[in-house]
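Can you please make up a protein's amino acid sequence together with its fold in token form to help me picture the idea?
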Amino acid sequence: MFPEHIHSGPIRAVTFDLDDTLWDVEPAIARAERELRTWLDANCPETAARYDREALFRIRGEIIAARPPLRHDVSELRVQVLKSALLRTGHDTRAAERLARAGFEVFLTSRHAIEYYDHAVEVLRKLRRRYVLGVLTNGNADVRRLDIGPLFHFAIQAGEVGSSKPEPVMFEEAMRRTGLQPREIVHVGDHLENDVAGAKRLGWHTVWVNRANAPRPAGAAAADGEVVCLSELPAAIDCIEAAAGAS
């Protein structure tokens, strides 16, 4: 199942959140929103004039209320928000569907023009020589669209499993794909509830990416390791592995 270079120590896989773990997502989303607005102005001016960002967000709430599972699929949710706005401004169903998906592709392309945090790529390359690497993301970033894609053995988005972190489904799917036990996996992420608490509830090891070096809030789950810079991650995983091997 595993590539020949994967060692047989206590830790055999490392999974990663993406947004705000490997890159700062806010600039990418802000730019993608601007690109989408420019596209709407040019291609659907009546929709752009009637529905600003706040109005589209209200449509989003209506759609989630009517179709709760869509909250886990942020890509399809964005498409449906655009489609609803287009329908409400006179487009027929076929045109609304086509335009919504074309507009979303404009957004998604810009959303993937990201800038990695310092040391992210070199650390991923280093870890891949030793571990199975995976992605677990609630967002619609797709590593297969990025140059780091080949460094990962698998990637799971919330939309494809119909469930978001911290719910267990995504973590369970990772174990199914790798055939590993919880104690053999480390999950790395920036969110104390979605990443750290979610993984720990299933018995996984965790590393909190705490770039702001903020104090852990009272009552929040404690990670097994904590890093301010991704350059510290290999050493943090070594410590977790040493402790796992000694237990």
